[in-house]
Write a structure and sequence with these properties.
- This protein has 550 residues and is mainly alpha-helical.
- The protein has 23 helices and 8 strands.
- Strand 7 and strand 8 form a beta hairpin.
- The longest helix is centred in the middle third of the chain and has 31 residues.
- The protein is elongated and about 85 Å long.
């Protein structure tokens, strides 16, 4: 193959990037509209409530109504809430779909840089990068999340642009003294990565992977250590911009800026000093850990634990093994890999982010960035491992065909777009019973999502969750669950309330009501229970009273 082409003509790419961005925006908006209104559990639990609570100073007026997710930063959801209140849920959803679609021009730029690194002519690289970027971006996960409040696709846009800008910085860095452009690009990449982590902490593996690229691959302005310092400082600035205020707020309230996660490190007295991780999808044996991508499609879902077929990560895993064998046995492959930084950085990014992800999470939708990046990575692997034009094209096409077929098969399924509901003018179409709850305290028990109701109910009604996914972690009894400062806060607030009481729970959760209320000296009137109907989960509300003194 010819020597790698540089990125000196980046200004000529700008019109292409803008056209791709506009086309992608229209396509994603159309997908989101066809898919329907967001209906995922997190939307009902906290995505709509948290920004409302932040804007109306309800963090302690209500107490943890969205369970432990009440403590997640509201800022990624603020635009959605504001747009919905002003212009309706359709406008808000389409706006989020447009931001999600900006992954497409980032992937297009990455693909152009990869083709340039493989020695492909500029015009050919531009033409080939277009379908490759489309195949990459319209992945099963992105189909499920288009236009939704689930932050994985939204924040993936920042991660993808961080990677694109980082690779551009490497391509602009010559062997001489660092240029202001390459330095600025590296700082922008770090800032974007920091913002992505600040908006959604589960993007941490990608920031670690980019830092690993700086150290392992180099070809960065100022040498590896200086470049890592610049990247790290810019990343810290981006993180503080996106998360600093909320982290300080949580620290001031709970003495843990990441509350309730990492409490085994910060030891907030509001809960037990344990780490909160969803272990549902973690591999339980060494064999499943090593070959996880070939197992996870059988039982892991993107959202609400749906099962779905996605061949991308298994193919990327297999491609990485193929790349390792090529480096081990082919001197030509090693020489081609050393010819420039783009392909090595792409591979380091993929491997490191996957390893950190499988150690921390093993939750499929947190791997969306790698899912989208897989087609470009496979072409890069084929290019440096084979080194000849037509075999590279043939193997790349062979690798991409299953990805197109899996996305097409996924799109034909009834739940291709995840959990959706028909569009509604009033978002949730709540039918609340004829109960006078003004000035009352509604005690919430069980695990069902209910906080979506709160913005549409009397603002002087308090919603206090006495049972949630925060209480249960690491506790053996009901007394132990409340033997902390959160329990003390609940006891004090309930004891001080001088108005009416109600209790709310989901169908099938009646068994929790009696014991939970009894701990706080409350009983409920089972004969008064009525259903709350909406587009969200069905809920039940009953009158409650202080238990008679014995």
């Amino acid at each position: 193959m010819r020597p790698a082409a540089g990125a000196a003509g980046f200004s000529g790419l700008v019109p292409w990037i803008l056209i791709v961005a506009l086309a992608g925006s229209a396509a994603f908006a159309a997908l989101a509209y066809v898919a329907g209104q967001d209906g995922n559990w997190d939307f009902y639990n906290y995505h709509y409530y948290n920004p409302y609570a932040y804007l109306n100073d309800r963090f302690w007026f209500d107490i943890q109504p969205a369970q432990r997710q009440s403590n997640i930063t509201p800022f990624p959801d603020l635009p959605f809430y504001w747009l919905t209140e002003k212009f309706g849920v359709v406008t808000a959803s389409l706006a989020y779909a447009v931001v999600q679609s900006w992954q497409l021009p980032a992937i297009f730029l990455i693909a152009v840089l990869v083709f340039a690194a493989l020695g492909v002519r500029r015009r050919t690289a531009l033409i080939a990068a277009l379908p490759l970027a489309v195949i990459a971006t319209f992945s099963p996960l992105n189909l499920q999340l288009a236009g939704t409040t689930t932050g994985d696709s939204l924040t993936a846009t920042f991660v993808m642009w961080a990677l694109a800008v980082f690779l551009l910085a490497q391509s602009r860095h010559g062997s001489d003294r660092p240029t202001p452009t390459s330095i600025a690009l590296l700082a922008v990449a770090g800032a974007l990565a920091g913002i992505a982590v600040g908006l959604k902490l589960t993007n941490g593996p990608y920031a670690v992977a980019l830092a690993a690229c700086v150290l392992a691959v180099g070809h960065v302005p100022g040498g590896r250590i200086r470049a890592l310092s610049l990247f790290g400082l810019a990343g810290l600035a981006g993180f503080l911009l996106a998360y600093g205020y909320w982290g300080w707020f949580l620290y001031d309230e709970f003495q843990n800026p990441l509350f309730p996660t990492f409490n085994h490190v910060f030891h907030s007295e509001f809960m037990k000093p344990v780490q909160l991780n969803d272990e549902t999808f973690k591999a339980t044996t060494l064999a499943r850990t090593v070959f996880y991508p070939f197992f996870y499609n059988a039982y892991t879902g993107a959202i609400n634990y749906q099962q779905f077929l996605d061949l991308r990560i298994p193919l990327l895993y297999g491609g990485s093994v193929f790349a390792a064998l090529a480096l081990l046995f082919s001197g030509g492959a090693r020489a081609r890999l050393r010819a420039g930084p783009i392909v090595p950085s792409l591979l380091v990014f993929a491997v490191v982010s996957y390893l950190v992800w499988i150690y921390l999470f093993s939750i499929t939708r947190y791997l969306l960035v790698l899912e989208v990046l897989t087609p470009v990575a496979l072409v890069a692997i084929c290019g440096f491992a084979i080194g000849r034009k037509w075999p590279t094209i043939a193997l790349s096409a062979l690798a991409l065909v299953p990805l197109v077929l899996s996305s097409a098969q996924h799109a034909q399924r009834g739940n291709a777009f995840g959990y959706r509901t028909p569009w509604a003018d009033t978002v949730f179409e709540i039918e609340f019973p004829d109960l006078a709850i003004d000035g009352s305290m509604v005690l919430v028990t069980g695990g069902q999502a209910m906080a979506f109701l709160i913005p549409f109910l009397p603002e002087d009604t308090r919603f206090v969750r006495i049972d949630s996914n925060l209480n249960y972690v690491g506790y053996e009894s009901i007394e132990a669950r409340y033997d902390n400062r959160m329990g003390a806060r609940l006891r004090n607030e309930i004891a001080a309330h001088d108005g009416d009481f109600f209790v709310m729970f989901g169908p099938g959760e009646e068994r929790y009501v009696g014991p939970d209320l009894a701990y706080f000296g409350i009983v409920h009137d089972a004969e008064s229970c009525q259903a709350i109907r909406s587009k969200g989960p069905e809920l039940i509300i009953c009158r409650a009273y202080r238990a008679p003194s014995s």
